[in-house]
Every structure is written in structure tokens, then in C-alpha cells.
Amino acid sequence: MNTKHSVNALSGKRSMLRRFVTVATAASVLLLGVVAQADGGGSGSFSLATVAGMGESYTGKLDVKGDGKFTVKDEGANLVFTSRVADGELNMKDGRQKHTVGDDSKLGLKKGAKVTLTIEKSKLTFPSAGQDASGSAPGKLNMLGVDSTVTVKYTVHEDGGKYVIKSASFDFKYTNHLPVSKEDQKLDPKKDADKIEHDKRVCLMLVCVKPTVSVTISNGVVEAKK
What we know:
alpha+beta; Lipocalin; eight-stranded antiparallel beta barrel; 3 helices; 11 strands; 44% strand
């Protein structure tokens, strides 16, 4: 038996083992770093409501309601709430699903469409451990690639490093996110704002949907750094 070759082979195996351990350790550190960067987020559910009817007073008012889900991402300075409304995260009631999202959407919310709400964390009041905090904060709502500003009223509770949304709500006008017709593009955006909004309403026959939509969050948990 060649002792020298055996020693060299053993030494080589030990060297390979050391290199493997070093690489595995580095990979573990990188993985932990990725996980740490991904920390912060959350999810919850919401409901939305408006009415539909005839004329300016929406005579014969019909409830237009839906329920949805959202996820939250902590992006450093902002909290971003996202609902993939056209991919199963919004369910409209009373047979209004196909006219709201999907191929026959009267709003243009085709498959793949999502709605985001971005709120600056500096505008929020974070509660102390085990406490509640209430307030209001401006948010940027993006739908169909168009932004509008909303005011979010909220009450949250701190629970073991997480923030439980006890209640939150805001209103928005879906007409702010729809294109202006060629004829209305000739009008003054400020002077004729009411007419432009009126013309952008979604209507089926004589029944039109009121532009103002109320969104309410009653169930949600957010993990975020202050």
C-alpha cells in the first residue's frame, strides 16, 4: 500500500470538504439575507360598494357590492397594498362579475389588471406595543395605470410586532381612472369637470353606476418597520 498516495487522497478529500462547507455557509448567509429583505408584508380582505340607477339621482337604486383580497408589501418608505382584481381577487355580487372584471369588463379591467394603494409610512401613526392608533393619511390609488389621491381613515392595533387593521376605509371615483372621450377632450377639464365625469360613467341601457365607490377594510395584518 502506498501510504503517501493515501495521505494525499485523504488530504484532498478534506480540502474538498472544507471548500464545500465554505460554499454552503456562504449560500446560507446569502439566503438569510434574501429572507431578511423579504420580511415585511401582510394580507387582508376588503369590501366595496356603490349604487346604480337612472338619472342624476340614480332612481331605483341598486346596490353594487363586492368582496376582495389584498396583499401588502413594505417597500421601505411606503406600504403598498395590491389587489389583483382581474385574477380572482375581486368577486362582485348579484351577477356583476363579468361586467366589472374580465374580458367583458366595462371598466377595462381585463385579465392581469391590478389595483394598488401606496401610502407613505411617514404619514401614518404607528401604535405602541399592545396599543391602538387611529388617524387619516393620503394615499395614491393606481387603477388602469392612472393615479388618483384618496384619504384613508384607519384604526390599527399593535400585536407582537404586527399591526392588525381593525378598520380602514376610503372613497374613490372610478371615473378618474377612465379615458376621456374624443368629444369631451375639447372641453375645459376644470370648467366642464361635471360633464366629463357624467359622460365617463359606466352605463347599461338607462342604468348608470355612480362614480363614487366606498372601500372598507375590516380584516388585515401588516408587518412593517416604522
